[in-house]
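Q: Given only this backbone (79 positions), what sequence would you predict?
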């Protein structure tokens, strides 16, 4: 039981670091508003879609890793 607790704790630390890194890589939602007000549009159509695709992937990863982290935290609390 003690070994299982140690393994789950190590996995939880890895998930916490990964979750932090993924959140830091996401772009802020206010970035689009500032360019809309200032009128600056230096991005091409293809780079905008690429950025949205990356942000969507990072948001999806954040949800899944956050859910696994929450479940693992509850599981560790029971042991």
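A: Predicted residues:
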């Amino acid at each position: 039981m003690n070994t299982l607790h140690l393994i789950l704790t190590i996995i939880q630390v890895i998930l916490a670091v990964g979750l932090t890194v993924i959140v830091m890589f996401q772009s802020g939602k206010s970035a689009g508003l500032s360019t809309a007000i200032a009128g600056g549009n230096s991005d091409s159509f293809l780079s905008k879609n690429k950025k949205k695709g990356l942000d969507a992937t990072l948001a999806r990863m954040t949800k899944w890793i956050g859910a696994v982290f929450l479940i693992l935290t509850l599981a560790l609390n029971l042991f």
